[in-house]
Backbone:
């Protein structure tokens, strides 16, 4: 009964709050006077509200179409405060030197966000540490043991996540986390249509829902065992490169960008795979979601990415990324010499394993 009442309250809150604007009121220690305080949309980075502090106080006002993630920033200071809020009156109180202990009240969605973070953070941190340890471990026996431990930790994380999505299947917070977790955990990505299908109400509205709608719609397009459709895009010299021009080789179509931290962290694994298997008929085709050509080319040189690269320099509107429903990076498809997909979103040890099984 308590669960039903909470979900009903969530729906009523969104209906009644759509008519009003967004208001963030702050009372923070260690916030210098005359500091410019801004509220940025976490998806578009557009400014939604701005104010100036006095005696630790500030007020920001704006409006949003749907509840989403925002970032509260302070000019000249490194502190950032995430807020998952809608058109609500929210208060932020505490010591700015201790962001994690701030008291944030007045938002139903932010309460859900806090619950997700409190449950998942303690589980994700050791998982990430274990994954990092696997990447640096040289001894194969130790690496196997670490992989087994990371798989157990991964199961703990995904089980906790699935319980939260069931509890909050009407919240857009669940939509954000589903989008992130589908990119991190293969088991979540495989179940993406059914998990997202269980969401209702405002969980299926907004930018994150739009991204998931496209991802689910394109799921069949990139299914293992099917032929990856043809595409063409220009390289840095303006030469048109087609996927079919690489037919006869094993090809990793790698979606990345110079500004993508996880992509850059994964690049050494791709370089290692390329150098190990290039003499056996394997290559990489990099599809960049960059906007700045100079930064794109600089990253290629710095990371030692000695394979073919293409981009239309249109950021997330990259035509190939749009064609294949790419909503997050790094992302990739591995195809065999006939163009059939034999792997998707392979990283590190998984990429090495699939290549070792297929490229002889």
Residues:
């Amino acid at each position: 009964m308590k669960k039903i009442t909470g979900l009903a309250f969530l729906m009523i809150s969104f209906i009644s709050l759509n008519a009003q604007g967004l208001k963030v009121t702050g009372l923070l220690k260690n916030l210098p006077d005359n500091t410019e305080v801004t509220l940025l949309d976490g998806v578009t980075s557009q400014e939604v509200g701005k104010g100036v502090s006095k005696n630790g106080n500030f007020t920001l006002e704006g409006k949003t179409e749907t509840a989403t993630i925002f970032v509260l920033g302070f000019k000249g200071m490194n502190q950032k405060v995430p807020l998952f809020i809608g058109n609500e009156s929210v208060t932020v109180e505490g010591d700015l030197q201790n962001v994690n202990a701030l008291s944030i009240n007045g938002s139903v969605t932010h309460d859900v966000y806090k619950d997700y973070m409190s449950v998942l953070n303690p589980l994700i941190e050791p998982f990430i540490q274990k994954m990092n340890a696997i990447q640096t471990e040289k001894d194969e026996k130790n690496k196997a043991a670490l992989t087994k431990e990371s798989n157990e930790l991964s199961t703990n994380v995904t089980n906790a996540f699935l319980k939260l999505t069931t509890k909050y299947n009407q919240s857009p917070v669940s939509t954000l986390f589903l989008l992130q977790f589908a990119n991190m955990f293969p088991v979540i990505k495989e179940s993406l249509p059914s998990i997202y299908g269980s969401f209702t109400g405002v969980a299926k509205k907004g930018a994150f829902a739009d991204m998931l709608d496209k991802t689910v719609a394109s799921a069949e397009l990139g299914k293992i065992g099917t032929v990856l459709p043809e595409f063409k895009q220009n390289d840095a010299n303006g030469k048109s490169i087609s996927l079919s021009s690489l037919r006869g080789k094993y090809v990793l179509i790698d979606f990345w960008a110079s500004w993508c931290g996880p992509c850059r962290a994964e690049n050494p694994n791709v370089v290692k795979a390329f150098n190990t298997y290039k003499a056996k008929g394997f290559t990489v085709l990099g599809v960049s979601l960059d906007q700045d050509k100079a930064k794109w080319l600089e990253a290629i040189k710095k990371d030692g990415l000695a394979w073919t690269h293409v981009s239309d320099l249109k950021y997330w509107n990259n035509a190939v990324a749009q064609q294949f429903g790419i909503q997050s990076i790094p992302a990739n498809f591995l195809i065999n010499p006939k163009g059939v997909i034999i792997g998707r979103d392979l990283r590190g040890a998984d990429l090495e394993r699939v290549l070792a099984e297929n490229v002889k």
